Amino acid sequence: MWDPYVKDCPTRALLDRIGDKWTVLVVGTLAGGPLRFSEIARRVDGVSQKMLTQTLRALEADGLVVRTQYPQIPPRVEYELTAVGHTLRDPLRALEEWAKEYMPQVLEHREAVAVR
Amino acid sequence: MWDPYVKDCPTRALLDRIGDKWTVLVVGTLAGGPLRFSEIARRVDGVSQKMLTQTLRALEADGLVVRTQYPQIPPRVEYELTAVGHTLRDPLRALEEWAKEYMPQVLEHREAVAVR
DNA sequence: CGGCATCCTCGTTGATACTG
DNA sequence: CAGTATCAACGAGGATGCCG
């Protein structure tokens, strides 16, 4: 009844893609609309310039984010979710809501077991 | 309007938890009902004994999976999602459906960009 | 401002062998 | 069958410095 998780299934590909430390957070941050590089960095607490650049480049390569550079000095670059990028928001939001609802008790259980 | 992703928000904790290589796949596999260790290993293609054990232990510690050992020889151990574990299925399924729907074009876009 | 290049460390994962 | 133990490899990620 349940498909086995074979090596090349799309679920695995997605996990490889969003399983890193920053991708989901960046997508969530961009959900509200286009933002500048520095603004994303400010909202995603703790991300380094390197990792933010790397994450955004990868999202761009996958067609989930578009990068717009304005020819100004100082430079101004904005990032925005594409149409496909926006469709990813719903499942990610479901994950976030689950996290808010259940993570506290999960962490509590983890602690309780660890003490023993 | 959008919450910044501060370091200790539940979303990050969840990502740390399910962002590894096997957790989501194991939870998905157990969604259909209790399974023996070897059966899970068979359905999750490529997982090593070590990683499967490690993943299951962590899920157990977090109260998402229960482990039942039957005193037999040879040993028989079954794993099953807890009530909380089952609540995680919906958001994960949403992710899987997105993957089936959109990952092909994401990968295609990635390829198309890479060639340039 | 928005990067890129480099170095380095640590944690996750994998391979292999052994066990109750 | 269902693990445990050990070792080795790899790569994500962080720190730092420089640049158009």
What does this protein structure show overall?
The structure is a homodimer of 116-residue chains. Chain A is of the alpha+beta class. Chain A has one domain (11-115): Arc Repressor Mutant, subunit A, CATH 1.10.10. The first copy, chain A, has six helices and three strands. Chain A has helices at 10-18, 23-30, 37-43, 49-61, 83-87, 89-115, and strands spanning 35-36, 65-70, 76-81. The longest helix of chain A is centred in the last third of the chain and has 27 residues, at 89-115. At the A-B interface, helix 1, helix 2 and helix 6 of A face helix 1, helix 2 and helix 6 of B. The first copy, chain A, binds a DNA duplex (20 and 20 nucleotides) through residues 20-22, 36-38, 41, 48-51, 53-54, 69, 72-77.
